[in-house]
Every structure is written in structure tokens, then in C-alpha cells.
């Protein structure tokens, strides 16, 4: 029983990793803390997590999952013998998660293959694909430099997961304290420059999940190097 309970708990935890990174001030400005909307958001996040980890393809699939959640929330008896189906649920979850990751990898590999053929792009030694959209005129940072940047981060499907621009405040950090994609790519830029970065999973978050960033995800960043803050 305890082993099975890890599944929904891990799912719930994954849903909120990214949301917890927001400051209290940002949350107060952007969210209505009414109980109904909070609970709706909880349900939506759980639904997104299931969608991202299970191969649900038909209306009947969605109805079955929805009905099971509804019965549990309304304290109704399960329509199945849960002791019999718990191992099958875990097996389905493992198999579907693997299938989703394999499908994602194939799509990303094909995208990177085409991106590397584009002569407008530069391929770095660690596999990062970089397209300079504006050449800078200032100095370039070292791996140990403190930099100030504006950026937007998206998944390959266009889903935005982070943006300093929307927050209205540039980010400042030591270049060797971020993902490898940034550490290598920003050293190729100059102050005032802009670039699009295509970061393979092993130069980003690898097989870890970070909020809406699923394991094994290729990330796309629009980066503007505002300042190299070395003294």
C-alpha cells in the first residue's frame, strides 16, 4: 500500500515544483486565492501531469481517468478491485512514461538534426545549437563571470516555463552556476548580443523533472546578454 501511494504523491510534488518557485509577491499579484480557483488549479495541474506521463489517446481514456478521480473524491466505492489493479496501474504508468520519453526523444533528435544543418546556426562542442540574432559589441563573459541577462525559456512545443522579461527584472547569476547550455553558449556572446539557444537534455536538466519541464526535455531559450559584471 505504501509503495503505491508514492505514485500520486510524486505526481503531485512534480506539479508544484515550478509553482513554488514564484515569490509570494508574484503570487499575490497574479492569482485569486479563492478556494474554488485553487482547487480547480490543483485539478488542472494533476491533469497536465497525467497527460504528460501517460499515453492517453481517446475520449474513453480521459473519461475513465476522470471517473476514477471523481469517484474517489466523492467517497464512492471503486468500480474495480484496487488490490488487483494497483500493480497494473504501476506497470502502465512505468510503460507509458517510458513510451512518452522515447517519443519525445525521437522528436527532439529530429529537430536537432535539422537545426544543425542550418548554416545560420552554430553547433557547440557539447551539442548546444546556437543562433545569434543580434551581435553584441561589448565584452564576452568567462565561465566564472557574473552576468546580467534577460531571457525567455520554452519547451520545444512552445510552452513557456520561465521569463525574466515578464517578471520585468533581469536575472543576475554566476555563469558557472547555471545549466551547462548557458555556461557554454553565453561565453560565445558579447554584451548587447541576443541569441536563441537549443539546449539538449544533457546540457539542461537531463532526466530530472522541474515543474512543466518533463524528464529528457530539450529547452529553447531566447537570451539577451545585458552586462558582464566582472570587476
Helix vs. strand class = alpha+beta
What is the alpha-carbon Rg in Å? 21 Å
Biggest sheet record:
7 strands, antiparallel
Helix content: 40-55%
Write down the overall mean pLDDT.
85
Write a structural description.
By secondary structure, the chain is α+β, with helices and mostly antiparallel strands. It has 7 helices and 7 strands; from the N terminus they run αααααββββαβαββ. Strands 1, 2, 3, 4, 5, 6 and 7 form a 7-stranded antiparallel β-sheet that branches. β3 (146-155) and β4 form a beta hairpin. Mean pLDDT is 85; it is low at 1-28.
Short description:
45% of the residues lie in helices and 18% in strands. It has 231 residues and is α+β, with helices and mostly antiparallel strands.
Defining key terms:
alpha+beta, about 230 residues, elongated, seven-stranded antiparallel beta sheet, about 45% helix
List the helices and strands and how they pair.
Blueprint lengths: L1 H16 L6 H7 L4 H19 L5 H15 L8 H36 L4 E2 L5 E6 L11 E10 L4 E4 H4 L3 E4 L5 H7 L7 E6 L19 E10 L3
Antiparallel strand pairs: 1-2, 2-6, 3-4, 3-5, 3-7, 6-7
